[in-house]
Structures are given as structure tokens and as C-alpha cells.
Design brief:
This protein is α+β, with helices and mostly antiparallel strands and about 180 residues long. The protein has 2 domains: about 80 residues, no CATH class; about 70 residues, no CATH class. The chain contains 6 helices and 4 strands; from the N terminus they run αααββββααα. The two termini are about 30 Å apart.
Length: about 180
């Protein structure tokens, strides 16, 4: 049986976060992508509620280490992430899939949008007006509102999946007992 992840390892997964960690929790293809990408980050203040020292990470040779510089305090392997993901409850996996589908649907919805200055006329004699769709300000605002809502949903979902709570929030450990 695999050793459970420490709180620091789960915070590292949350710090990586976003669609990258969502995909890792949905299957091995996500961790394959993360590990081959050599994705690293540094210089942020760390996730809310997380360790102060978690200001970045490195992904090198199939392992993620943090912080990004200095003495390594936590590390994660592809196998550890995949093992953790395999233990997620079905309802969380289903909601992760729904969140991914919503994000992809929004991306497809705006795939043909353009914000270039050539909507109605060419900018010079060598160009032609753009034939792609140029959204109205209201449509743009709607897109960004949808994107923020999906990102917020994804962040909350990652907190649940990784068993991390933010300040003033409790996990639903005893919700079924009432």
C-alpha cells in the first residue's frame, strides 16, 4: 500500500493547481504531461493557508521539488500523484470532469473570437479587414465572468480533492452524521 501524501505534498499539488493539477487528478495522462513539461514556477507568495516557504517549485526528471530555490522541503513523484488520484472519491472525480468539460466548452465557444484592430477596415494597403468574429464588450465581459467562475469552481474543487481548507472553512468530515 502506498504511503499517504503529507499535508506539505498536498499543498505543493495545490500550489501547482489550475488545469494542470486538475488533469493530473483525472488520470496518468495529466501527470505524464506535467512531468515532461518541466513546469516550474517561482516568486509568488504561496497559496492562501499554505506554508509560507512554498513560493515556487521545480519539475525535473519525474520529480517536483519545492521551494524553487534553496533547501528542498518537499518532493512529489509521478507515482505518488497517480496513486493519490486513484483514491479520490467518485463524486470528486465526476466534478473534476464536469469542471474540465465546462472549461473546454468555454474555450470552444470563443475559439473564433478576435480582438485585432482590423475588424471593419484594413490597417494599411497590404492587409484586408479581419473575417473573424469580434465580440462586443458585453460578450467579452460575459466570457471573463464565465472564466472566473470556472477558475473559482476549480480552485474550490482542488481544495476538496486535496483535503485542504481555507481560513474559516471546515471540511465536510461530519456532514453525513447529522
Amino acid at each position: 500500500m502506498a504511503k499517504p501524501l503529507t499535508a506539505e505534498q498536498r499543498w505543493l499539488m495545490f500550489a501547482i493547481g489550475g488545469w494542470t493539477m486538475r488533469e493530473c487528478l483525472l488520470g496518468p495522462a495529466g501527470t505524464d504531461y506535467l512531468m515532461q513539461s518541466c513546469y516550474s514556477h517561482w516568486g509568488f507568495s504561496g497559496p492562501d493557508g499554505g506554508p509560507d516557504w512554498l513560493t515556487g517549485w521545480n519539475t525535473v526528471r519525474g520529480k517536483i521539488t519545492a521551494p524553487q530555490s534553496g533547501v528542498v522541503r518537499v518532493s512529489l513523484t509521478k507515482a505518488q500523484i497517480n496513486s493519490y488520484a486513484a483514491t479520490l472519491p467518485a463524486d470528486i472525480r465526476r466534478e473534476l470532469t464536469e469542471c474540465r468539460d465546462a472549461a473546454h466548452a468555454e474555450q470552444r465557444r470563443i475559439a473564433d473570437w478576435c480582438h485585432c484592430p482590423q475588424q471593419d477596415q484594413a490597417t494599411n494597403a497590404r492587409t484586408v479587414p479581419c473575417g473573424r468574429y469580434h465580440p462586443t464588450d458585453e460578450e467579452d465581459d460575459d466570457h471573463w465572468a464565465r472564466t472566473r467562475a470556472i477558475d473559482t469552481w476549480q480552485t474550490r474543487l482542488l481544495r476538496r480533492a486535496l483535503q485542504l481548507q481555507s481560513a474559516g472553512e471546515q471540511l465536510d468530515l461530519f456532514s453525513g452524521l447529522a
